[in-house]
Amino acid sequence: MTLSRRDFLRVSAAGSGSLVLALSFSGCSGIQTGYREEDDRWVADAWLEITLDNTIYFTLARVEMGQGTYTGLTTLIAEELDVEPSVIRPKFAPVAPEYRNPLYKLQLTGGSTSLATSWEPLRRAGASARLMLVAAAAEVWQIDPASCRTDNGRVLHPDGRELNYGQLAKLAAAGKAPENPELKPREQWKYIGRERGRLDARAKATGTAQYGIDVELPGMVYAVVTRPPRYGASVAGFDDSAVRAMPGVLDVFAIERGIAVVADKYWRARKAQAQLVVEWNTEEALAVSGDAVMEHYHRAADDDPGEEERREGDFGAGVRSADRVIEASYEQPFLAHATLEPMNATAWYRGGRMEIWAPTQAPDLARIAVARVTDLSPDEVAVNTTFLGGGFGRRLTQDYVEEVAAVAARIRKPVKLIWSREEDTRHDVYRPAMLHRMKATLKDGGVTGWQHQVVGPQILDWYVRNAAPAQYPWAPKFLYDTLGKVGLMAEGIATPKDISAIEGAVDYPYRVDNLDIRHTHTDAGVPISWWRSVGYSHNGFAVETFMDELASELGRDPFQFRRELIRHEPRHLAVLERAAAMADWDSPPAPGRARGIALFRSFGTYVAQVVEAGIEGGDIRVYRVSCAVDCGEVVNPDVVRDQIEGGIIFGLTAALYGEITFENGAVVQSNFHDYPLLRITALPEIRVDIMASSDTPTGVGEPGVPPVIPALGNALFALTGIRQRKLPLVARA
Question: Residue limits of the Aldehyde oxidase/xanthine dehydrogenase a/b hammerhead domain (predicted)?
């Protein structure tokens, strides 16, 4: 390091220690950052920390649940800061307003929005810091900042001298952040768009990455909870005499969600739970069985045509003038999330505060969950977010945090709560079952009208309970339920419209003269939440299967049929043509195999897929999936492929096996033997082609799911001549 005595005196004149660079960018007005000596951490609105020993920390405002935010968002900062991404140390953000997702006004990770919402803000943050460091170096050297350049964490003097960022940090912090820092032009990018490994790969491969289930604290005890077998039931009474006599058992008591058993070791708590005798009050419990939910949906659809969500032309007139009217109904079951890491959380109540360690997608909602079941206010709750062993929307709901907080408030020791796999399956908040009634008009060999009636619940009805109070954390707890009710009443007026049921249906992309898309809002009482790709997952199946049916009715090739109706949408058309070319669509498949195609845009990302499938030994076998994806500018191609491949596997699992059923209100399935995941021996060959694009990046965590389900169903129709309109799909010779 070429640091002269004069330069050393200048850069060290401000003192020693770590400091935070003051950053300013849109969406976070008036950011003031500073270093807190008393606890050695950032407090408010801080993204970037640089210590005098040249360690660079990046506060990651979106959780890492396998989707690649740890790598992708760090790369954005690294590009503009001009350092190797691997030298930056990401850390998960505390709960703070500056870390809220701007689309949802909540601090949560979901909707494949992490990269899209961070694309410009994080790059501006890195650029601002780099310019401040350059200005500091120029001040030391008494030269024009324009004559300096940066390279991998150093500012370089024209004569070859250099200062690393750590040496300049304190001096830079005293400077003024630029109002609108200029970002690097595309041709100067070193890291964005390059094939690079994941920054969290080594930690995960070596077991050093801390997931929620890994948290260990001094003197920690363990809790399990016995919950009602039917949603809506409550505890009428329980006999814990045998349990309290068992080794290691510390306490047994009722909480809002069931009976908690606390022991000094997890397995002791689990064994003790088996001896607990509970009497349940089922007067208000869910009582559905078999096909009752779908029968309820059909009655609702008959009684209520639904709210009009999109209308173009005159569908009724199109029906009257049509040569033919084609109708079909599609049914989809409830689905569990089946994250490999079951629900868990750790809590410690001490000193009038509670600290939470949790794999949560929504840390600010976790604080509200704690406040609900304790005597604490949200600002008396600290949430430490860990790595997540899968999220898929399940960890947006904070029921497991409520449980551990209720236990910790009584035990006053660090306590870890772990759900068993059976509990995770039977007490999930599910992807809603949905019904779709479709109708199309045909005239002169073409499609003239399209009607889609979506029948089912809205997720916000179930989620607003904690989401509304999280937006107003200063509100007293007695207002929490009122805020939730007001949020529902103002939905679509003062609050965003809940589109969870209709997304992917309302933005039907094909060119048809008469459109009528509506939603019949009905709820069977089964708890629901977001599930990977949300409404796109069920609407994708209905829309793209019905499109295939129309092609068959008209005697058209399914690819060419879609191609003609999507010519006005160049990005749709490009991925459709690319996927067909990848799959050799025009050449016949091997004997015993057939191909199906589907196209869908979700979360701003365009995806087309061709599935090649057959039937072997009475089972459906998927041989190959060819996928073309347009997700705008690509930050890390490896992460894009990983996520699209993962989405395809996730979707195939749902298409082949996914179904949660009920018997007298209780979930029948319990573990992977009766709610299976796609096994590695059944994995198809997956080929992903990423379209070159300079458009703003969009999400990739979820868009791989929606097209693969109808593409597989369409392949089975091509193979067997039998159209399946109900999931999961079954083998039919």
Answer: 206-284
